Every structure is written in structure tokens, then in C-alpha cells.
Here is the input.
Amino acid sequence: MEKETILDLLRREFPDAVRETSVSLGDEIVVIEKEALLPIAGFLRDGPGEFKMLLDLTCVDYFGRKPRFEMVYHFFSLSENRRLRVKAALEEGDLRIASLTPLWKNANWLEREVYDLFGVNFEGHPDLRRIFMYDGFEGYPLRKDYPLRRRQPLIRLKE
Amino acid sequence: MPTRIQKQARQDTMLLNMGPSHPAMHGTIRIMLELDGERILNSEVEVGYLHRGFEKTCEHRTYFNLLPYTDRLNYVSPLINNLGYVMTVEKMLGVEVPERAQYIRVLMSELSRISDHLTCLAAMAMECGAFTVFLYKMKAREFIWDVIEQTTGARMTTSYIRIGGVRADLHPGFDTVLKKAVEETRQVLKDVHGLLDKNKVFLNRTRDVAVMSREDAVAFGWTGPCLRSTGICYDVRKAHPYLIYDQLKWDVPLGERGDNFDRYMVRMKEMEQSLRIIEQAAVRIPKSSPAFVVEGIPPVQAIRESRRQRVRRPVALSPNLEGSEGVRYPDILAEDKGVVVPPKEETYTTIEGLIRHFKFFMRGHGIRPPKGEVYFAVEGGNGELGFYIVSDGTDRPYRLHLRAPCFHIVSALEQLIQGRLVADVIPTFGSMNMIGGELDR
Here is the structure.
């Protein structure tokens, strides 16, 4: 019998939360419900897959599609030497998702980056504020409806 | 608006700003320290001074046009950035790259890795007071950059590695310059080992300073030399071999304690391994099929002749295009015609070449990967340099995200310097190899 892959395992452990699984160009992909992110991430980290490393975390804005935003997480397992991509869709009206800061330390800055550039709110993040742009910057530059060459007034450094 | 540290600071402590413009802050980064005497109680790192909207810009450029932007990410090793981006697109397209081009890519990315490590350690040593080491390493880097410059035509902003292969073949006389660079670098490494390894001043400032545990290194997403200094063996070139790295013999140097000295040592040893890779690749590289110097008629004459009949003789291109003649294309570029720029002599002398040229550069045409998303990573100077690209089937990426290794590494700085002295910030920060272009994107 073939060894149970991490995708099968996730489907079995979280039958309600895993929407679909696929393999594309050698990358394993899981699409989940956003409510189940924290338990699934915890299971990935401490479970048999040993995905101890949060490689990357970002967001994609599918403008004009519903749901509009999609969070993309890349996990990496040092013991099994494989990557896993986890995706969760976010509605435009409800841009909230659980923060991964309790599980991974680098999630702190990565989530600040996504908050800065996309405006996604991470629930449970200890210090959610802009990281690249300055205080007083309006809008979220990586959204598709933010024009490439829009100019913003410079703010004064000190009152 | 007050920052976090300003809100949380105790009444009896002092707040000190390091940066954004500070000689030891490579590039611009601001570290705010809360000090009790000389001890750091808390700190806050503020990044973003070099944010240029790399990802947003790339969404508005075609796959071919955005290549020069990747040079400006990690500007000390631009060739590895080129490679990471290009290989991600190739993974989407499923392009097969000729063997000689693969060897050239390995040679170039290892040369870049050495120059990256040399720069990092040179700056780190200089900030600890070892100015001689700085000069020695800069000297070695010049030799490496000479090799890169002769082949790619630029020292830093190379844009040399192209989708489907490389821009041009190696420069005539490459072997000689390469040999000289390797010899000089070896000698410099030996000298630096002698100057620093048992140097009491250097050891006091690096040994057991800013120790990173293995668990924390993984939790912070560290990769590259910094992760390996804690003793975890993860190198993308070994773990997910790309190009021809699995055919060459080389080792992954590891540290033990994860302190500043180990980060220095791992980088030093890694340069030796890179030199090993370069030497093997330079010997095993397949020879280019046509004679190296192509005799041909001048371009003006070729264009004049092409008005009457098809030009059958080879055309001698200008020195700027040397190495990218049509006869060399099978060696350096993929056969897939929709992916690579057609040879210049065909563009100017035949109608088919001209059509192909326009089809390649016209808006809405050119490189159009199929719909989908892909993640691919190469081992950059700082660690896993990953690109995540979402394609919607058009000629420009729908979303391009860079996994910058140094972003993860610098996010651990606050923890590393907590409870240490102000002077420890400098070697700690130096050993991390923060590169502003990559960190802030």
C-alpha cells in the first residue's frame, strides 16, 4: 500500500475544514476554511509531518472575484524535506484571520507586512501596525485597485 | 506617533536611536534601544526605509522586462536573484535549459555567493576594528567581480541569466581570469583565517555573543548560513537540487553554537566549498560547439545584403553582443522559440526573425506561462530565496512575491541583542548580512 501523504492525512484529520487538495507542478496544495487555520497549522507543526518552519506567508488579491483575497502559507518540513502550501480564502467584507504568532516567531513581521500591503487583520497579533509604509499612509498598495503611480502627500516628521 | 518601545519604556531608562543613517547599519535600518547603562533592556527594529514597491512594480511589467528589477534585490549577489526568478518562470513553463547554460549558471551563482559572503564578512570585520581584513576581502571581491564583469558586462546590475538560459556565452579567456580569481580568493581566505580565527579582540566580540538556539532559528524561519551556524543541515542546493549541483562534490559546513563567530566561520567555510564547486564546474563544463571566435561580415554589410537576398554567412556582432550570436544559441539558450529573444542577426536580416522579435516584445505576446501558481527557491547568499508567482495566463505576473531570507533573519535581531551591551549590536548585526534591497523590497 502506498504511504499516506500529508494531503490524505489532513483530509482525514480535518474533514470539514479541508476544502480541496491538489498537486500542481510538484507543489502540494491544501485549501482550507480560514476558521480552521490555527488548529491545522498546529497540527502541521506538531503532528507527524513535522512542518517546523513557516517559510513564507503572503496574500493574493483576486480583484473582481469572490472571495476576493486569499492567504497563502508555505510550510517546510526539515525532517521530511518537503514544502506544503496552505491557502485560505478571505471575503472582502470580513478581512480577518487568526494570527500564527503563537506558533511561529517570524509570523510577527510577515503578518505585519501583509497587514501593511493588503489590509488583512490578524486576530491575536501582538503588535499589528505598518512595517514598510509610514504612519499616515492611506490605502493598501498591493491591492489591485491601488494605482501604480498614485502619489501620497508626505507627512511632516515632527510636530 | 509614538512607537512601541516609546510607549513601553520605563521612566528611568534611556532611549537611544541607532540609524537609520549610521555607519554600521548597512543600508538604512533603524534600531531603537532602551538602555540601562550600557545594557540593552529592549529594542525595536524599524525597517522599510528602502521599500521601493518591488512586488507592485513587477505586476505591471512583463516576465521579460522585470528581470532588471531582480538585480536590485540583493545587490551584492544579483546573479542569484536573476537565477531564482528565472528558474521559477521556467518551472511554470517547463523549459529545458542546455547543459552548458546550466554550468554557466552554477559558475555565476557561486561567484556571486563568494562576493556576497566576502562583503558581509568584510563589513563585519571592519566594524570590529579589523580594517586589514576589510581591505583584503575587498581585493578578493574585485577579482571575482572582474570575472563577472567580463562575461556579463556589468559588475552589479547584471541581468545576465535569462529565461531559457543565459544572455551570452562566457567571455574568451574566461578560464584564465577565473583561475586568477580563485587563486587570489584562496589566498585571501587563508590570510583572513590567520588574522581572525584566534584573534582575541575578534573572539571576545563574537564568541558566545548573540547565541541562537536551534529551535528559535527554525521558529524564526532562518535559512542559509545563519541556520547552518546553529548546526541544522539545510541547504536548498542539497535538499532540493537544481541545475547540476547534485553532480558535483561539495560539503555543507555547519556550526555548533549559533553565535556570531559560528556565523562568520560558516560563511568562511562556505566560500571554500563554493571555490570547490567553481573548480569542478569549470573543468566539466561542456565546450561550446562552434569555434569560440566567429569570423563574420560586419552588421552594416549584412543588413545591406539582406535587402537583396538571404544572408548565409555569419555576422560579426558588436562587442556588446559578444557571445550571443545565433550560432551559440543551442549552447546557451533553450530551443523553445517563444521563450527566448531571437538572435540579433536574424532579427535584422530576415523577415522571420523580425516577426519573432516583434512577437516576443509586443504587448500581450511574449512569455505567457499557463494559469496557475508556483513556488521555487534557490540558495541565495543569505538563505532560501524563494519566488511565488501567480499567473493568470497573460504576459505579466498577476502576483509576484519574494521570500526574502534576510527578512526572517533580521526579525530575530530584537531577541538576539536583548540583555547584551550596545557594542554587541554591531557584530551581531554584521554577521546577519542584512541587505536593504532584499529586506525592504
Summary: Chain B touches chain A at residues 1, 4, 47-48, 51, 53, 55-57, 60, 91-92, 216, 218-221, 232, 234, 239-240, 372-375, 384, 386, 388, 390, 398-399, 401, 403, 407-408, 411-412, 415, 440-441 (CB under 8 Å). Residues 299-361 of chain B form one domain. The beta strands of chain B are 14-18, 30-36, 39-46, 161-162, 165-166, 372-379, 384-391, 399-403. Chain B has two domains: 55-286+369-403, 299-361.
